[in-house]
Amino acid sequence: RLMERFLMDGFRPQQLSTYALTLYKHTATVDGKTILVDFWDTAGQERFQSMHASYYHKAHACIMVFDVQRKVTYKNLSTWYTELREFRPEIPCIVVANKIDADIKVTQRSFNFARKFSLPLYFVSAADGTNVVKLFNDAIRLAVSYKQNSRDFMDEVLQELENFELEQKEEDVPGQGQRGSTESPRPS
Amino acid sequence: MMCTAKKCGIRFKPPAIILIYEGEVKGKSRQRIMPVRNFSKFSGCTLLQQRAEQLKNNPRHKSYLEQVSLRQLEKLFTFLRGYLQGQSLAEMMEQVQRERTIDPEEDLNKLDDKELAKRKSVMDELFEKNQKKKDDPDFVYDVEVEFPQDEQLQSCGWDTESADEF
């Protein structure tokens, strides 16, 4: 639903059932340059406790969402974060507290997970739209700057490989979410 | 037919769904009684859903029930079933309340599809209630609100005390 709220009319997800993910394509402008963004939505893959490795491959930013009404989704963040860092040790990651419309008081609370790993924390609501556009625009900006300045060993290797392939223009920004909160087969 | 629904409830004896509404004459409340026939106290969830749908789509009542949600009708049928099974009103209210609230500790990844669908409907209900749609007059695409995370904030209560965990 966060994706839908951000893309509004422009959203046209592609279901890639083989990889159990929903892909959203989006065009954004950063510093006057037009870039293509691929949003990868987990589409309930979290059910299997772990993502397929291809999911992390060439991702340039990660958005981790939890539901402020469900402690379980918050507690699971650490597991997902560990897995993310195994594959992508350096990419920017944003933590999102979704559904603040359910209880606005949560915005007055501290969430140590984000603090512990020095990750930015966004309070958002897919329902009323609070901070959704800001979240995605910031994520895109982070992804672009990461891609330009990346020091990741894996990225350098990939860069080498890419020289033999067509030039790559996409940014991959996976929206890693908790099932039932913002991501679902009917992407919420 | 101009009809503004005011209240919709259930009468147990004899069973009927009752709608209080305002018709064409402004300020004048009217009442519509829609009898419930052949209702079994053994009706399962699916049957309750069907009853709600049938009533909502009934050609005679349809236009009156437009503003009444399917979920509410379903809930009323659930009350009727509870009554026929001898439950007290307090018990029924508590049960409905329990079913319509989110258990923060429950792991939805461990539920079967049917139970998951139920939880999702609870979440959808909240979403729809709070949703700002594109066609709403006060809709704003980019809503930015700052929520500063300074040191003085009270903990969310979900973090453990130990330093190793968050």
From TrEMBL, chain A:
<dbReference type="GO" id="GO:0060271">
    <property type="term" value="P:cilium assembly"/>
</dbReference>
<comment type="similarity">
    <text>Belongs to the small GTPase superfamily. Rab family.</text>
</comment>
<dbReference type="GO" id="GO:0003924">
    <property type="term" value="F:GTPase activity"/>
</dbReference>
<feature type="region of interest" description="Disordered">
    <location>
        <begin position="165"/>
        <end position="188"/>
    </location>
</feature>
<dbReference type="GO" id="GO:0005929">
    <property type="term" value="C:cilium"/>
</dbReference>
<dbReference type="InterPro" id="IPR027417">
    <property type="entry name" value="P-loop_NTPase"/>
</dbReference>
<dbReference type="Pfam" id="PF00071">
    <property type="entry name" value="Ras"/>
</dbReference>
<dbReference type="GO" id="GO:0007018">
    <property type="term" value="P:microtubule-based movement"/>
</dbReference>
<keyword id="KW-0342">GTP-binding</keyword>
<dbReference type="GO" id="GO:0005525">
    <property type="term" value="F:GTP binding"/>
</dbReference>
<feature type="compositionally biased region" description="Polar residues">
    <location>
        <begin position="179"/>
        <end position="188"/>
    </location>
</feature>
<protein>
    <recommendedName>
        <fullName>RAB, member of RAS oncogene family like 2B</fullName>
    </recommendedName>
</protein>
<dbReference type="InterPro" id="IPR005225">
    <property type="entry name" value="Small_GTP-bd"/>
</dbReference>
<keyword id="KW-0547">Nucleotide-binding</keyword>
<dbReference type="InterPro" id="IPR001806">
    <property type="entry name" value="Small_GTPase"/>
</dbReference>
Automatic annotation (TrEMBL), chain B:
<dbReference type="GO" id="GO:0005813">
    <property type="term" value="C:centrosome"/>
</dbReference>
<dbReference type="GO" id="GO:0034454">
    <property type="term" value="P:microtubule anchoring at centrosome"/>
</dbReference>
<dbReference type="GO" id="GO:0005814">
    <property type="term" value="C:centriole"/>
</dbReference>
<keyword id="KW-0963">Cytoplasm</keyword>
<dbReference type="GO" id="GO:0005654">
    <property type="term" value="C:nucleoplasm"/>
</dbReference>
<protein>
    <recommendedName>
        <fullName>Centrosomal protein of 19 kDa</fullName>
    </recommendedName>
</protein>
<dbReference type="InterPro" id="IPR029412">
    <property type="entry name" value="CEP19"/>
</dbReference>
<dbReference type="GO" id="GO:0097712">
    <property type="term" value="P:vesicle targeting, trans-Golgi to periciliary membrane compartment"/>
</dbReference>
<keyword id="KW-0969">Cilium</keyword>
<keyword id="KW-0970">Cilium biogenesis/degradation</keyword>
<keyword id="KW-0966">Cell projection</keyword>
<dbReference type="GO" id="GO:0000922">
    <property type="term" value="C:spindle pole"/>
</dbReference>
<keyword id="KW-0206">Cytoskeleton</keyword>
<dbReference type="GO" id="GO:0005829">
    <property type="term" value="C:cytosol"/>
</dbReference>
<dbReference type="Pfam" id="PF14933">
    <property type="entry name" value="CEP19"/>
</dbReference>
<comment type="similarity">
    <text>Belongs to the CEP19 family.</text>
</comment>
<dbReference type="GO" id="GO:0036064">
    <property type="term" value="C:ciliary basal body"/>
</dbReference>
